[in-house]
Amino acid sequence: MDICKVLSLLLVGTWASLVSGDLTECDALTMICGNLVQEAFTTYPNYADLKTPQLIQRLGYPVEEHNVTTADHYILTMYRIPYSNSSPPALGKIPVLLVHGVLASSVQWLWQPPDRSLAFMLADSGFDVWLGNSRGTSYSRGHTFLPSNDPNNLTYWDFSFHEMGLYDLPATVNYINSLTSQRIYYVGHSLGTTQFFSGISLNPGLASKIRAMFSLATSGYINHMTNAFFRASAPFLVISATEQTINQLGGGQFLPQVMQQYIGDFTTYCTQYTLNCGVCNTVFGVLFGIDMCQTDFRELPGILAHLPDTTSTKTFAHIAQDATLGTFRQYDYGLNNFAEYGSLLPPNYDWSKYHVPTVIYYGDNDNLAVPIDVLATANALRPNVVQLSRVNYSTWDHMDFVIGKDADVYLYNDMLNIMRNHTYG
Ligand SMILES: *[C@@H]1O[C@H](CO)[C@@H](O)[C@H](O)[C@H]1NC(C)=O
Ligand SMILES: *[C@@H]1O[C@H](CO)[C@@H](O)[C@H](O)[C@H]1NC(C)=O
Ligand SMILES: *[C@@H]1O[C@H](CO)[C@@H](O)[C@H](O)[C@H]1NC(C)=O
Ligand SMILES: *[C@@H]1O[C@H](CO)[C@@H](O)[C@H](O)[C@H]1NC(C)=O
Fold it and tell me: Can you give the residue ranges of the Partial AB-hydrolase lipase domain (predicted)?
């Protein structure tokens, strides 16, 4: 996607948030964050170089790398924390697969200290932890024959969350299941829930390998999202997608290297000048729903160094279609739908095919997975929803599910109890 377009969307989004009062009083706290960020930079001067395996190892946990090839030839890399100091290797550990959201990667589970990070808490509690990386992220860029590092190769980047559900989900679940002979717990955040819902509805048999699904920032129906960046960019993406001009939009990779470079510079700028920290956080808050009340500023350099990761423009176009039309259905090819599907409109994902016990947590201040949409999704899933919990914290936002400093208190402890007690599977 063209850098100027991205930047103007970013500015429009920030401005729109300020005008609409989307920012909370906690954002004022950002004015004091500079010193803490500086402190973290002193501790980890090369934070950006710490990738998922190093972030696991630096805390004394073992890590394994596993590559899985999907039925459509994409190569995905998963990381595994098979045991920990407090829970030595043992047979029969139950696997838990954690799947990140859009523009993120497995790294999102590793920013918090071990005693309040879901991945480490699970490993310490005796679970076999697997961190997925969706196709197109910097961690899962393999393909058996396409040039995956060419941001403009539209053959490689021709996928959305549909393919993540249709191919990535069965490839990873089947791999873990056959290696461990265990049914697994699935934890999805944001697009990690979307691809699960679509994937199970397309491949209902997979449900027999899943004990239960934990849905954080549930993203099935998404048409009430207030996130200014998405709202501002959705119309452009929908028009270009249905007009088949996704090419002209820059096609291919959504966040090309130049954009990441820019964000890198932005991060450096923010940390060098204390007062600008507020501006920096505001932009990222608008983009990702980072709640300043729940941010540990010492983790911020790590977060900013790895967010955003990459995905395809088509993934964004697909999200934009559902966000605009209130649908949850396959990709809309406009005039080419007939050739693609044999019908004028794309098929809906069939909720009636979904049979997995599902535990849903939602946050009042989540500007991407807003409560009214989460409840609509829960309603569609109804017989499968075994628990529907509002996080009891009024400004709980989209990223708080993974980086909120009190996430352990508000949901991880509950999730661990459910898994340890085999409450639902
Ligand atoms: C997985 O694939 C990546 C990239 O293709 C490669 O660098 C890495 O060595 C592979 N890892 C394993 C364990 O095979
Ligand atoms: C992507 O790369 C492959 C292999 O080099 C090539 O065959 C294909 O035409 C390319 N696709 C596009 C749209 O450039
Ligand atoms: C929610 O939190 C408030 C205080 O923040 C507390 O008074 C209330 O009891 C809590 N409700 C539940 C159901 O835990
Ligand atoms: C089972 O759940 C209860 C709360 O419902 C909790 O107090 C208990 O510690 C859990 N047991 C295990 C083994 O996690």
Answer: 53-110
409 CB near ligand 2 (under 6 Å): no
The CATH number covering residue 394 comes to: 3.40.50.1820
Helix/strand number for the chain, H first, E second: 17, 9
Interatomic CA distance for residues 81 and 138, integer angstroms: 20
Element holding 262 (H helix, E strand): helix 257-272
Tokens linked to 27: 């954002």
Give residue 21's region: left, alpha or beta (phi > 0; psi -120 to 50).
left
What is the number of domains present in the chain?
1
Q: What is the pLDDT of residues 328-380, one digit of tens each?
A: 999 998 888 999 999 999 999 999 999 999 999 999 989 899 999 999 999 99
Query: With bands split at pLDDT 50, 70 and 90, how would you rate the model's confidence at 29?
Result: very low
Global pTM value: 0.89
Task: Give the structural domain span for 135.
Answer: 47-254+310-420
Identify whether 366 is a catalytic site residue: yes
How far is the centre of ligand 1, averaged over its atoms, from the C-alpha of 67 (Å)? 6
Ligand 1 atom 2, closest CA: 67
Residue type, position 172, single letter: T
Residue 423 is inside which H or E element, if any? none
Ligand 1 atom with the smallest distance to the CA of 66 is 13
9 domain-assigned: no
